[in-house]
Write a structure and sequence with these properties.
40% helix; Peptide methionine sulfoxide reductase MsrA; oxidoreductase; alpha+beta; EC 1.8.4.11; Met_Sox_Rdtase_MsrA_sf; 17% strand; Met_Sox_Rdtase_MsrA_dom; Peptide Methionine Sulfoxide Reductase, Chain A; two-stranded antiparallel sheet; 8 strands
Length: 231
């Protein structure tokens, strides 16, 4: 019986740990946790960011996705936020409860001389399950869906060609890729306490049990893509 009960207990634990707040008090606790464990993290200025290109992706809780892209060489800055919907100025509470059409997403500033958009697409697909519909890990709902945004026809083709390659190589077996390939329209940055959340809150239960293991799996599979100071 032990071999049956143990996986069940693990699933039960993960089900209780989610990027989504269960009520307003949980929302407040997220902010308070950030304040209590705050670490000073330097961010590039608006003028400095203008030197780089941007890319946008959604693949589950933005705390996880932000940390993954921040570990990649050539990526200069990453912001957590909301995209893919039409509602203006969405809030974390609205998006996380599924009250908008937006998904939790990230804005990636990158140096194209160091890393290409194609490689960022590879990072995107290699760091989550693109066959999981409206779910990533313990997080469920359309707000956690998989989306690869494009800003022009060239980027659209790169995404579509890579999906075709994954399918031709039968990477996911009989599971279909459900990633949305969507034209980019607007990105709304999330509230300040969400930015660099994993680095600021290493002791948060979600970060310890979901985000860090996901990041470590990515680092193990994409060693050549990592910044020199990432281990």
């Amino acid at each position: 019986m032990k071999s049956v009960r143990t996986p069940f207990l693990i699933l039960l634990l993960l089900a209780s740990i989610s990027c989504q707040p269960k009520n307003k008090s949980d929302n407040q606790e997220v902010a308070q946790t950030n304040e209590s464990e705050n670490h000073s993290i330097a961010k590039l200025s608006s003028e400095e960011l203008q030197k780089y290109k941007t890319a946008y992706f959604a693949s589950g809780c933005f705390w996880c996705v932000e940390a993954i892209f921040e570990s990649v060489k050539g990526v200069k800055e990453v912001y957590s936020g909301y995209s893919g919907g039409f509602e203006k100025n969405p809030t974390y509470e609205e998006v996380s409860y599924g009250r908008t059409h937006h998904a939790e997403a990230v804005e990636v500033y990158y140096d194209p001389e160091t890393i290409s958009f194609t490689q960022l697409v590879q990072v995107f697909f290699g760091s989550h399950d693109p066959t999981s519909l409206n779910r990533q890990g313990p997080d469920r709902g359309a707000q956690y869906r998989s989306i690869a945004f494009y800003k022009n026809d060239k980027e659209k083709k790169i995404i579509q060609d890579y999906i075709a390659k994954l399918e031709a190589e039968n990477v996911y077996g009989d599971r279909s890729i459900v990633t949305e390939v969507t034209p980019f329209e607007k990105f709304y940055r999330a509230e300040e306490y969400h930015q660099d959340y994993e680095r600021r809150n290493p002791n948060n239960s979600y970060i310890r049990n979901v985000s860090i293991p996901r990041l470590n799996r990515f680092k193990e599979n994409f060693k050549s893509y990592l910044k020199e100071d990432v281990h």
